[in-house]
Amino acid sequence: MMRFVPLFILIGLMACGPVSPERAADMCEDRANAAAGPTGEVGVGVTSGGKARGRFEIGVTSDYVRGRDPY
């Protein structure tokens, strides 16, 4: 088991490669949008049994609560 530890460490380090500039920009934009205000989602549907189902979700980041400038 111990002989596989270096292999697991190597595989873990391979996953930590550099982030592309496009991906970095997307990550920054997502974080800024989340800090700009609460986010939400609403879902409505019907099950196979004919019952109506709904879902409601609200997300608030700590940056928004603290009043940090998202941009």
Order of helices and strands: HHEEH
Strand content: 15-25%
Number of strands: 2
How many strands, which pairing sense, and closed or not: the largest β-sheet? Answer: 2 strands, antiparallel
Dominant shape = flat
Count of individual helical segments: 3
Please give the order of strands in the largest beta sheet: 1-2
Radius of gyration: 21 Å
Number of domains: 1
Overview of the structural elements:
The protein has 71 residues and is an alpha+beta fold. It has one domain (2-66). The chain is built from 3 helices and 2 strands; from the N terminus they run ααββα. It has a two-stranded antiparallel ribbon with strand order 1-2. The radius of gyration is 21 Å and the shape is flat. The termini are far apart. The mean pLDDT is 86.
Pick out its properties.
single chain, 71 residues, alpha+beta, 2 strands
Short description:
The protein is an alpha+beta fold. It has three helices and two strands; from the N terminus they run H-H-E-E-H. The chain is 44% helix and 23% strand.
Secondary structure elements and pairings:
Elements: H1 5-14, H2 21-36, E1 39-46, E2 52-59, H3 62-66
Antiparallel strand pairs: 1-2
